[in-house]
Design a protein that fits this description.
Length: 306
């Protein structure tokens, strides 16, 4: 677990944030932010006032990134690219999260390294990561100005017959449904969204199609919602295309792997970020994933359950 409660000792009374700057080598901004977020404990109680003083023993939650040996597929001076497995979080959800991709990144490339964009926990594939603060700003600006072309592969239900471009606006907000933890839907009040879809191969024995997906905007769950909207939900999607009761059961971790396969066609979301193409610092990069996802597609197609 990367977050650990450790004991410290201050021989004299001093500002806690100053002690942490000297002891941990972090910036004043980060030191005060960590205190405000409840990571400092005095006599066992959280102290969230950034100007608080410490003297003698106290405790502080320290972040120590861990590794599971995941190697990047591309390493450059200013960035690296990981091929994230399905099920791995991008960032820790809380202090009890045992492992996330940012742990692997910071363990291998230092605490200044950071992830420059997100993909869903269940989506596998390429994730671009900055190696320092300046490259993080540059890469995020590249995403903001849409100078990045991302390509995904998705295995969907039904026969996807023709290339189409979906430009339905997407809205995320709580509504009157019980499913307030995931609501993203096509709605006229939503943000402009655009995805191009191209069918690659139809598997008649399973009534599923492998589809290439190119998002031109970066809305949350964009590919999933657009595919659901055109009546081709992604195989393994436990949310879009499922009955509300089963969605809630999934979110509450009450659905077994076998039941999920029965309901959605797979034990994981069959969506994979397979290619990144961009220009950065005067160079053009085209980075492609391995064929592991296609192996998983073949497993789904060859399984006995329909």
């Amino acid at each position: 677990m990367p977050f650990k409660l450790k004991r410290f000792y201050s021989p004299t009374k001093q500002r806690a944030f100053k002690f942490l700057i000297d002891e941990l080598g972090i910036s004043q901004r980060d030191s005060q932010r960590h205190i405000a977020n409840g990571r400092l404990f005095i006599d066992g109680k959280p102290m969230t006032i950034p100007t608080a003083e410490v003297e003698g023993e106290f405790e502080f939650v320290v972040y120590e990134p861990s590794t599971r040996g995941l190697k990047p597929v591309t390493v450059e001076d200013k960035f690296v690219v990981f091929d994230k497995p399905s099920g791995v979080l991008i960032h820790p959800q809380n202090r009890n999260t045992e492992y996330s991709l940012v742990d692997e990144l910071k363990y291998q490339f230092g605490l200044e390294a950071n992830i420059a964009h997100r993909i869903d926990q269940e989506t596998s594939g390429l994730v671009l990561c900055a190696r320092d603060k300046q490259s993080e700003k540059d890469i995020k600006a590249m995403f903001e100005f849409r100078d990045m072309q991302k390509t995904y592969l998705a295995l969907v239900h039904g026969e996807f017959k023709e290339e189409i471009t979906v430009e339905e606006p997407l809205l995320r907000r709580e509504d009157h449904s019980a499913i307030v933890r995931m609501v993203v839907k096509v709605h006229e009040e939503g943000k402009a969204s655009k995805t191009h879809f191209k069918p690659l191969k139809y598997f008649a024995e399973k009534d599923m199609t492998l589809v290439e997906c190119k998002p031109y905007t970066g809305r949350q769950h964009q590919i999933r919602v657009h595919l659901f909207h055109v009546k081709h939900p992604i195989v393994g999607d436990p949310i879009y295309g499922q009955e509300e009761t089963n969605v809630l059961r999934f979110l509450d971790k009450e659905i077994s792997e076998d039941e999920r396969i029965e309901l959605s066609g797979s034990s994981r979301l069959m969506l994979h970020a397979c290619e990144l193409e961009f220009e950065l610092y005067g160079n053009t990069y085209n980075i492609k994933s391995s064929d592991i996802f296609l192996d998983e597609v073949n497993k789904v197609i060859s399984s006995n359950k329909k």
